[in-house]
Write a structure and sequence with these properties.
Oligomer: single chain
Helix content: over 70%
Order of helices and strands: EHHHHHHHHHHHHHE
Structural class: mainly alpha
Shape: globular
Radius of gyration: 23 Å
Distance between the termini: 11 Å
Strand content: under 5%
Number of strands: 2
Largest sheet: 2 strands, antiparallel
């Protein structure tokens, strides 16, 4: 009986040098833009080049749009940086939204309860401590249960998001202004107690600077510290980590403390640095988008800047073409989805290769 050889087989590829990897991703983006152009012409009759120019204008058209782009990048990157150590350790932390919300709740509580009682510099210090504490508490709970009872961290952190949303919803009603409004509004609008100071005439610049510093520190931590080495070993193989004497449970809890703290800081940046309010939708799903940023950036904080820019640019651009051309909001989402599909698909070719069989003489 003849054995039929498969037409091709898939095998894992050796690690590709970084500039080749980004080259493959660039090709994927070009192909995605070509497909989006064809779809745009067929479905709307618009010139795809005009649509792409409008997307660029939506992100960079004015100085205000540029600052909004940078602000959105800063918040998304901050949450993505928080998730990166956990995911590198293969702890699937889907609780970024909840941890950031708890950080925001801590900051808002400090602003509302202490805004007119202590000096502004002391208030900001209290806000920092409260936001970090809120994020840590929300991250350590699932970490503890994972370390002690091997619970499913994916479901645990996901459910913690919903608990955080309900807690925030409760305190929004407690602090609502005016009573019966169902929302807090701008916190300390007259006194601006707890608001971050403007730098260079922009209220967003301090947020950007803080996230740049966090990015550098996170890169150093993950690549040049003992803790970063240990979480990498745990991520590669738990049995190996135990064999070489690494206390896995301690690494899990310690890493999630860091993850929660940085998520909490993201909540602080939202409340103290840009939005100055508290709502259940304040984080806006960035905890889930941050997972994509971390994976696409290969857990490298500097590469994550590029993936953050891409996702925020697509979001801003999609909103702009929807507004300018009067299109259904779903059209912008379709364009964004196609581009992300191609980018995520390119990851297959970065990690695997397809080998086609050669023609050979059949056995007599």
């Amino acid at each position: 009986m003849n054995n039929k050889t498969p037409l091709f087989h898939v095998s894992r590829r050796k690690e590709i040098i970084w500039y080749k990897a980004w080259g493959i991703r660039a090709i994927a983006i070009v192909l995605a833009l070509l497909l989006c152009g064809i779809i745009t012409m067929i479905t709307t009759g618009l010139n795809p080049l005009s649509v792409y120019v409008t997307m660029i204008d939506g992100a960079f058209g004015t100085s205000r749009r540029i600052w909004m782009l940078l602000q959105n990048m800063a918040i998304l990157l901050c949450i993505s940086l928080a998730l990166a150590p956990a995911f590198k350790m293969k702890f699937w932390n889907l609780g970024g939204d909840g941890q950031a919300l708890m950080g925001a709740l801590g900051s808002a509580a400090a602003m509302i309860l202490l805004g007119d009682k202590i000096p502004n510099w002391l208030l900001i210090i209290v806000m920092i401590a409260a936001s970090i504490a809120g994020g840590i508490i929300w991250a350590v709970i699932p970490a503890y249960f994972k370390a002690k009872f091997n619970t499913n961290e994916t479901l645990f952190t996901l459910m913690m998001n919903y608990v955080a949303i309900q807690l925030v919803a409760f305190f929004v009603i407690v602090w609502e202004v005016p009573k019966g409004a169902g929302k807090i509004g701008i916190i300390n609008q007259n006194s601006q107690a707890g608001w971050f100071p403007s730098i260079g005439g922009s209220k967003y610049l301090l947020n950007v600077i803080i996230v740049v510093v966090i990015t550098i520190l996170m890169y150093i931590y993950m690549n040049y510290s003992k803790h970063g080495y240990e979480l990498s070993v745990v991520g590669e193989s738990v049995p190996t980590a135990k064999y070489v004497g690494i206390k896995v449970n301690k690494v899990i809890i310690r890493t999630m403390v860091l993850s929660g703290a940085v998520c909490g800081l993201a909540g602080l940046l939202l409340v103290g640095g840009s939005e100055h309010t508290l709502t259940t939708t304040l984080v806006d799903g960035r905890g889930f988008t941050g997972v994509m940023v971390a994976w696409l950036g290969k857990f490298n904080p500097f590469f994550m800047i590029l993936t953050t820019f891409l996702l925020v640019f697509l979001d801003r651009g999609a909103n702009e073409i929807t507004t300018i051309y009067g299109l259904n909001s779903s059209f912008g989402a379709i364009i964004t989805g196609i581009i992300l599909f191609f980018i995520l698909g390119s990851e297959f070719f970065l990690n695997y290769k397809m080998t086609f069989r050669h023609k050979s003489k059949e056995a007599a």
